[in-house]
Amino acid sequence: MSYFYTKLSASITDSTIWREPHATRIVWITMLAMADKRGRVFASIPGLADRARVTFEECESALKSFLSPDPYSRTPDYEGRRIERIDGGWRLFNYEKHRNAVDEEHRRERDARNSAAYRARKKESSEPSEVVRGCQTITETETETETEKTKTSTTTEASASASPVSSPKAKAKGKAEPDESLELPDWLNRDSWNGYVEMRKGMGKKGEATPYALRLILKQLAKGYEDGYDANAVLEKSILNNWRGVFFNEESPKRKRVRVPMSLEEVRHMQAPNLFPSPGKESSGARPVVLAKVP
Predict the structure, then answer these.
(1) Domain-embedded: residue 98
(2) Mean pLDDT, to the nearest integer, of 248-254?
(3) Among residues 224, 240, 256, which one ends one of the domains?
(4) What's the chain's average pLDDT?
(5) In Å, what is the CA distance from 179 to each residue of 91, 114, 121, 176, 198?
(6) What range defines the domain where residue 236 resides?
(7) Taking residues 40-51, what's their average pLDDT?
(8) Per residue in 8-43, pLDDT tens?
(9) Which of 43, 140, 180, 251 has the greatest CB tally within 10 Å of its CB?
(10) Is there a domain that residue 87 lies in?
(11) Are 210 and 106 within one domain?
């Protein structure tokens, strides 16, 4: 006995099986109901006749029709035959194909219902519920807005009354802002620095730098500058590429060294150190040179 739920498609009324005698149609429906998930029906001819409530002769005639070719069948597979004999019964051709097609249609309908139910629940949860206090009606959204305003006001007042000198730990909790009062080294361009801070701020919560992180960036820039690199060019490269940090490597541009013009005495000393002493120093052990006047 089959314990599977058999789905009957409405298209069966358009098939050639529906033009068969009444008893043949009953036997076919009975076999569909008895088939397992692989389309196998295990029964004898008398047993199938009893299940279909038809006579033995009617059941035998129906099976003969199912085993014979059907030139008018909509399915050309197996020359229109509907069943084949197997050990212990029969197997229905194309049973799994039609079952999977019906299952797919059922799955789409189920997914559509689930999606509609999900959208409805989401819409209900997004709508602010009303809280009635006496004769005044206040929505939860308005209540949350007022709470945020109160928190913002309290935070602003506390910041204004706080001492300007705060611990590094407290500064680390703040957000990065272009601070014009921040003391930068002379070799670092403030516009480039403010542009870097703005770029980090535009990255959102994950990319925004704390004041402590900005101090670490300044240390990296100072070290690169001491090593002979152009710190401003490296900082601007990080801005162009949306990099969080600054990176110095062999390809980083070097800073230009400014040469101080030498005096005439320094040039003479470099060309002839034995004849001309270094500027500001007396000649030690150097014999004076007497230039003879040529008559």
Answers:
(1) yes
(2) 83
(3) 240
(4) 75
(5) 83, 53, 46, 8, 11
(6) 172-240
(7) 94
(8) 777 888 888 899 999 999 999 999 999 988 889 999
(9) 43
(10) yes
(11) no
